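Researcher: Last one for today. Full complex below.
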Amino acid sequence: MKANYVIIGAGISGCSIAYNLAAKGVKDIVVVEKDYLTSGSTGRCGAGIRQQWGTKMNCLLAKASIEFFETAQVTLEYDGDIEFKQEGYLIVAVDEEEDEQFAKNVELQKCLGIPAKKITKREAREIVPHLNTDAIVSATFCSTDGHLNPFKMNDAYYKAAKRLGVKFFFNEAVKDIIVKNKKIEKVITTNLEIETNNVVNAAGGYAKEIGTMAGVDIPVYAEKHEILVTEPIEKIQGPMVMSFGKNLYCQQVPHGSFVMGRTDPDVDHNHDIESSWKFLDEMAKTLCEMLPLVGNLRVIRQWAGSYTMSPDRQPIIGDIEDLEGFYLACGFSGHGFMFAPMTGLLLSEIILNEKPTIDISDLHVSRFKHQKEFVLEKSVV
Amino acid sequence: MISKDLVIIGGGPAGLCAARMAAEAGQSAILIDRNAKLGGQLIKQTHMFFGSEKQYAKTRGIDIAKKLLDDVGSYPELIEVWEDATVVGLYPDKVITVLKQEKYLKIQAKAIIVATGASEKVLAFENNDLPGIYGAGAVQTLMNVYGVKPGNKIIMVGSGNIGLIVSYQLMQAGVEVVSLVEASPNIGGYKVHAAKLRRYGVEINTSCTIKKAIGKEAVEKVVTIKLDENWNEIPGTEKTYEVDAICIAVGLTPLTSLLSMIGCEMKYISELGGLVPVTNKYHETSIDNIYVCGDSSGIEEASSAIVEGYLTGLIASSKLGKKHPKFAELVDDFQSQLENLRNGPFGAKIRQGLKKLGGSVDA
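Model: Here's the assembly. Have a good evening.
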């Protein structure tokens, strides 16, 4: 088989890239996925969409992506409901240090046109009445942040890409990438050999291994993040409540369940995605302190997925100096879902040598080679 | 965190027998069951068992339960019984999380025997969520455990042994069984049970299924339809019955979610009822010291669950260092009992299923 472009990974990033390339008229695009649609990090994520970031790049990508989501259902001609709900993110500061940092973040966000604001404890309580304000110092709120169904959004991109002629192959794990004279020749999967000169690495947690197959070192690693869902109840919480200091995010999704997660600070760097009882214990403690009322609900299910961490917790999007035709969309550090519209648009522009809608030269992988210090994104759970 | 070398999940025939053999071998264990009363499905089985004397043939299920409970009850210093305790999680580090009378507890185990049994299969038809539609197990529980009639006019779906026996029990309780429908062209259960029903005037309609249930607040009517040799509905053969209950007895599927959760290798084997764990001939799963026995390892009769339980209790204890004084003799005996139980035409499906699962056909 021959292909103009082989995209590795049918998560939200791979499908968005495939759609954007196809929408620009590119033919013979093949997406290979080792499992099934949305089987990786996209289908395991917390379904939150936010613009309140600490770095300029992340803010810009998030803002433009939200603008896309607002009309995505129509743009992608999707017949389902992507369940985009903009009821905001309430990010709480739990100490003076966070309070100061958040003031700076909000200034940055405002400069970039993001409608975030710094609010008091009392105002926070008006937005989320069951929030334990004794546990917080202040908060920030952005009303256009919110929730989006990862399965539906991924499916919307997949179907739109398919309509434009993109071919998808599931249960096809990439086994090798043949490179000769610094040029890609072939991608070998479980059952296929695809002749191609262009490969897009959107393999999520396995982006590093895919890089290694092509002889390219990508400075990312996978780490497990756990999450749970409760029984559904009538609506009591509009926005996502998030705390970096207390290590928690918690949102009531449209069908009434609460989805929540936290990070294990001692997590190993590997592909483990097994659920742990420790997470359930720690999550319950954190939640009962911050949102005590929600602590009364029963847990339905817990699961885990991989964050693909980059050194500065910002994405790696672009080409790579050492290998022609090899493109990267990885290292999203837990936020690939909400950036996907821009990932797809910007990478397709870079691939086709168009002027990018947003200058993302700062997200090129070479930053880790050339720069001694990076701008570290601190706003991560 | 509680520490216990052996934990047995499920206090039905398999779990009870595993606990008894463990105790005989001198191995202590916690036996956990989510119901207020141990015994599993046996406690609602008022009919006499078939088979050989060794597995309590000619004894009523409810009396077998008493016997097995007494056996376990004679080792109070070794077997700790947790009733009204639901296992809610089984984690890769062999930590079991339990909701015991509203308390969330954790047990660190070294070996775990999963004997969680099965759940009833459902059938897809229009309005299949109306009140008045029961699984056959639920009907037995209502009638035989709580003494509650599930309805006055009922239609039975499924002609396996459960469908046939429960139909008869319904009649004994004064419920009118208007018809028994079976989608396949043949009756699934023992002919002796079917003959008994026919003698009492119950029509058995093979190649027939439920098209839909009708009712506002609860079932009021049911529409059946005949099926052709390719299992397609034959238009014009619809028949409407006035009923206030529908009993569905279309088989069981192993309850294996705990085994999936801990990461056991699973295989879909339709002959065994669905997704089952891959085991060696000693009922150990792909994970060291995680065992399975009874219906959760594949749907069979209670008699097989009993013998599997004994065998698994022996093996698990032995691996923990407590070897039964008659270990070798008993293992041979239980393995040959299982072989006998699976002999003959009614064991063909199970033999086929175990063969597909790989390995344990000689167990």
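Residues 20 and 74 of chain B are 9 Å apart (CA to CA). Chain B touches chain A at residues 89, 91-93, 95, 97, 106, 261, 263 (CB under 8 Å).
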